[in-house]
Amino acid sequence: VQLQAFGGGLVQAGGSLRLSCAASGRTFSTYAMGWFRQAPGKERDLVVGISRSGRSTYYVDSVKGRFTISRDNAKNTVYLQMSSLKPEDTAVYYCAADPSGSYHAAHGYGYWGQGTQVTVSS
């Protein structure tokens, strides 16, 4: 599967952004999907994940209540709606696919899109 992320940009603290990730191929629904982020000097961490069907989701504590992941299997696309953004959300965001379906575990993600920069100004 090939992944392409869109939607990053510069936003003020408290603002919102929506990231999209389009996948190629006919097997999108067989992958769990997730968004990772990597801030300068830090490791790439799993932020949110969603199951193959979209019925189950995972959120790291720092984004609960502010970020929402969703997917449209008919459009081969996964979305990340980010609200109430904080400067500490600044990072390069990567979408990723997990063929094992384990959406809440970082180690299963083996396919990556290019990153998209999200910058939150204070």
Walk me through this protein's architecture.
There is one protein chain. The protein is an all-beta fold. It contains no helices and 11 strands. It has strands at residues 3-6, 9-12, 17-23, 32-38, 45-50, 57-59, 67-72, 77-82, 91-98, 111-112, 116-121. The strands form 2 sheets. Strands 2, 4, 5, 6, 9, 10 and 11 form a 7-stranded mixed β-sheet that branches. A 4-stranded antiparallel β-sheet has the order 1-3-8-7, with no helix packed on it. The model has no long low-confidence stretch (mean pLDDT 96).
Protein traits:
122 residues, mainly beta, four-stranded antiparallel beta sheet, 48% strand
- SS-based class: mainly beta
What order do the SSEs take from the amino end to the carboxyl end, as H and E?
EEEEEEEEEEE
Task: Report the uncertain regions.
Answer: none
Helix content: under 10%
As a percent range, the share of strand residues is over 45%
N-C termini distance: 37 Å
Based on CA atoms alone, the radius of gyration comes out at: 13 Å
Shape: globular
Spell out the blueprint of helices and strands:
Elements: E1 3-6, E2 9-12, E3 17-23, E4 32-38, E5 45-50, E6 57-59, E7 67-72, E8 77-82, E9 91-98, E10 111-112, E11 116-121
Parallel strand pairs: 2-11
Antiparallel strand pairs: 1-3, 3-8, 4-5, 4-9, 5-6, 7-8, 9-10, 9-11
